Amino acid sequence: MVDFGLIRAFVPVLAPLAAVGLAYLLAVALHFCLNRWWVFAATDAPAVGQLKRYVLVVGACWVCTLAVVALFLATVTPNVFFAKMAAIPPATLLAFVLMRGFVFRAARPNST
Which terminus of the chain, N or C, has less C-beta within 10 A? Predict the structure, then answer.
């Protein structure tokens, strides 16, 4: 909802892809906090390492989102909101898999 609300605010003053891109980047701060504290409950690990990995994942998901939006705007619909909705499933799947296995992965026990 944050992402769509920001897109709605930016569309009147920015190009559609710029509005989607900026809204996405602004919404990720909230996304990181919610994932760290609530979804994966990964507060026992240092946040700095998680944040570095998170930035890489967000970059990958951002590229995925913009690619799908651009594809839909060029081939399916001129409506940026419909194009953005089409980008949600692939970007969400990519994000969850990478968040669980890379960003907020459980600490591995030391093998001795």
Answer: C
29 is written with which tokens? 């701060």
Please report which confidence band the pLDDT of residue 108 belongs to, taking 50, 70 and 90 as the band edges.
Answer: low
The total number of structural domains in the chain stands at: 1
pTM: 0.69
Residue 112: inside a domain: no
- How many helices (H) and strands (E) in the chain? 4, 0
From CA 82, how far away is CA 97, in angstroms rounded? 24
Place of tokens 């990958």: 60
pLDDT digits (tens, 9 = 90+) for 70-86: 999 999 999 998 999 99
Neighbours of 19 (CB within 10 A): 21
Segments forming the whole domain that contains residue 6: 2-103
